[in-house]
Amino acid sequence: MMSKKMLDALNEQIALELSSAYLYLAMGAQLDDENLPGFAHWMKVQFQEETEHGMKLFDYVADRGGRVTLEAIPKPQTDFGSPADIFKAVLEHERKVTASIHRLYELALAEKDYATQAHLQWFITEQVEEEKNAEGILRQIQAMEGKAHLMLMLDRHLGARKAD
Ligand code: FEO
What is the pTM for the complete model shown? Predict the structure, then answer.
């Protein structure tokens, strides 16, 4: 059984992962509306991934005999600006998630909670990928600014993203 402090922190992380899912779905809605179906598809795959991240923690808490309690998910904004603004916001959000995972890990170390440390290793590695992906797409968009045909090619490329 994990400590109450660890349990509360994991429940907060579940809410952060599920609010990430909701945030990316809101971005997908805007991109669909702007006729960028490939970008929108990328966001919908990201929505699924974030839901899986939340569920990985949900199942872990339950496996350890803890009680999952769901927190409120904030309403996302409806307009995130240009595609470059959107991916800047994705990168910023992922950095926030990384910091939160690292704080969780520090707590697991302080609590000598070895099982939680082991479980969080996956998330630490995943965050490297999450930040790399967001930054890579942002840099591509910035390199294409003002070149509509290249943006359409990138849209097609992002539309081919498969769920992991
Ligand atoms: Fe679940 Fe994108 O962090």
Answer: 0.95
